[in-house]
Design goal:
The chain has 618 residues and is of the alpha+beta class. It is built from 22 helices and 18 strands.
Length: 618
């Protein structure tokens, strides 16, 4: 009897151990739980010992910078985190961003692991600003290798033979010099990168639209919400609640709700997220300030509207607005590799990847008046890798960059620059910085040395930190269509909205406006010099929903090149002039249909955009 009891007790313990070890524990913190513990202090005894030289200096307290500092410190590096503000809130706190989202991979797995999952695990999907700061402060306080400097302004970098060796910093008017082996720019706008002379462009400057930026948001706080009534409304009458919010009439055409949410801050206070302003030129400080003021007034009107129409808001008052607009995009700095839209939509797996993302590529910035919850999704990947070269800036050695400003095309940044993916890139940057010191190579040499063993070692170290870097090979099913090479070129210019389902409507009958839109916008984005009011006037008459026949397509193309009176035989004449190529002529001869399908429009548009501008679309 006793033996049976002992056996059962042992069996229970074994089952408990197995369940915890392989079920509960990995679920709690992923494999990172054990790996990070085993990896702590990896660089101990392998780094320099100069007392006044830090191993890694991180500039900026954005979430990506926090992750970079934590990962470097945990490997054993003496780390300095230079904060522009008086706490660790960064632009997240200033703009009242109180939610975190992560994107699933191709098989539903969590891609944003490591430090991001650690932070999100402590905060949850939604949180308060004080909670956010407390969690970050506690994480930093738990690392003995991190020193913090607050209220700091970068004055000048110290550069010797093309290598950054220090930064001059102003703290409350007093100047300090901080030396380091490696530096990471985690500021929102790339202040250190700019001072180091790293080339960059503003907004969508890579497609000749440097005054076009992603919409900005103003989040704001209200007080006096009846929590119980609100909970009931959201639970039992969600559709009616959403419908009522969407009926709100904005006072300006360039405002809308996008991802409207109400997030509890405690004591009947709620932050309202989702007030979006489109068409703001962030290069113009006056325009940015005016947009903030305009949005602030609108936030007060929204509060009044909610008070009038919703029982839960009957006693609500506007409390305060965020100190600053939430800005998704401002500058893009050039690096050793620039991640492209097609890298993302082709689910590209780089051998030197440091993170994996899966968010869609967003083109909403090209819509001047999008309306509530309207989207312009260029496409949605299954998942894609971000290579090390994206965080290694041109022109300066031993400096890395993280955040949406890293070397992604302006469109690719809408996917790769999201917070979850960005924090993982930041964590990888911290590890890469330490690894390069231990192996006495510059961060640039990690890429250009051609040493595959070194890249493999770095990836293994990243995996041991808990970062998801599994290998994958995922084909894009659209690439089997004959016109897909043209689609890829148009995607690089952000001209097609295929949506979350990547539906290019290849066999859909085309309208005249489909071709006119692609030609008008494609020429402008390829070459401003080729675009003029005269050019625009030639194509505007075709911005109609009428069927696009081969004859009308010929008319349009001839008009484009100055022959606007051709009303018969236009197709044949356009063929003679080489405006319609042999491939399309063969397609027409084999098909009975009189009109073009979208697949033919894509091919026709690319050929004539390149011909008219004299430039090849990459």
């Amino acid at each position: 009897m006793k033996k049976d009891l002992v056996f059962k007790a042992v069996l229970v313990l074994v089952i408990f151990f197995i369940t915890y070890q392989f079920g509960v524990k990995p679920f709690m913190n992923g494999e990172a739980f054990k790996q990070r513990r085993d990896n702590t202090g990896w660089a101990n005894g392998k780094l320099g010992k100069e007392p006044d030289v830090y191993d890694v200096v991180v500039v900026g307290e954005e979430p990506e910078g926090i992750a970079a500092a934590l990962s470097a410190s945990r490997l054993g590096a003496r780390t300095l985190l230079i904060c522009e503000g008086g706490d660790l809130g960064g632009s997240f706190a200033k703009s009242m961003c109180v939610s975190l989202n992560s994107a699933p991979g191709a098989n539903g797995e969590n891609l944003d692991r490591g430090i991001f999952s650690e932070i999100k695990g402590k905060l949850g999907r939604e949180f308060s600003i004080p909670e956010y700061k407390r969690v970050l402060e506690k994480l930093i306080a738990g690392e003995k290798n991190i020193k913090l400097v607050y209220n700091a302004e970068i004055d000048l970098p110290v550069i010797k033979n093309g290598t950054i060796t220090g930064v001059d910093v102003l703290v409350k008017g007093k100047k300090y010099v901080y030396k380091g082996m490696r530096f990471i720019d985690a500021t929102r706008d790339g202040s250190l990168l700019e001072l180091c002379g790293v080339p960059y462009y503003a907004g969508s400057g890579d497609i000749n639209m440097d005054r076009v930026f992603y919409p900005v948001k103003l989040n704001f706080e209200v007080v006096g919400v009846d929590q119980e009534l609100l909970h009931t409304a959201l639970k039992s009458y969600r559709s009616e609640f959403v419908s009522l919010v969407e009926k709100y009439k904005f006072s300006h055409f360039n405002m809308r709700f996008n991802d409207f949410s109400i997030i509890n801050q405690g004591e009947s206070r709620y932050i309202i997220q989702g007030l979006e302003i489109t068409g703001v030129n962030l290069q113009d400080r006056g325009e940015t300030t005016a947009a903030y003021t305009m949005a602030l007034n609108e936030a007060k009107r929204i509060t009044d509207y909610l008070r009038t129409h919703l029982k839960a808001f009957e006693h609500v008052k506007f409390n305060r607005a965020a100190d600053s607009l939430h800005i998704r995009e401002k500058r893009h700095f050039r690096g050793e590799y620039t991640l492209t839209v097609n890298d993302i939509l082709q689910n590209r797996n780089f051998p030197d990847k440091i993170a994996v993302g899966s968010n869609p590529v967003d083109g909403i910035k090209f819509i001047s008046n999008p309306g509530n919850n309207r989207s312009f999704i260029i496409g949605k990947p299954e998942q894609f890798g971000i290579p090390l070269g994206c965080i290694v800036p041109l022109k300066i050695n031993n400096l890395l960059m993280v955040g949406a400003k890293a070397s992604y095309s302006s469109l690719a940044s809408s996917s790769a620059g999201t917070t979850g993916t960005g924090v993982t890139v930041g964590e990888s940057a911290g590890v890469a910085a330490v690894y390069s010191i231990v192996n006495t190579v510059s961060t640039r040499e990690l890429i250009n040395s051609g040493n595959r063993n070194m890249v493999s070692e770095l990836k293994e170290l990243l995996k041991k930190q808990g970062i998801f870097l599994s290998e994958f090979s995922i084909k894009n099913p659209n690439q089997s269509n004959w016109s897909y090479p043209s689609v890829k070129k148009l995607n690089s210019l952000g001209l097609i909205a295929a949506g979350q389902d990547n539906d290019y409507r290849f066999n859909t009958a085309a309208r005249q406006e489909d071709l006119a839109y692609l030609l008008l916008n494609g020429v402008y984005r390829m070459s401003r010099n080729s675009y003029s009011l005269e050019f625009d006037a030639k194509l505007r008459p075709y911005m109609t929903s009428g069927k696009l026949t081969w004859e009308i397509a010929g008319e349009m193309l001839l008009a484009l090149y100055g022959e606007e009176q051709v009303k018969s035989g236009a197709y044949n004449k356009a063929c003679e002039k080489g405006l319609i190529d042999k491939l399309l002529m063969d397609k027409k001869s084999r098909n009975d249909r009189n009109g073009l399908a979208m697949e033919e429009v894509y091919h026709l548009a690319v050929g004539n955009i390149e011909k008219y501008t004299g430039k090849k679309i990459n």
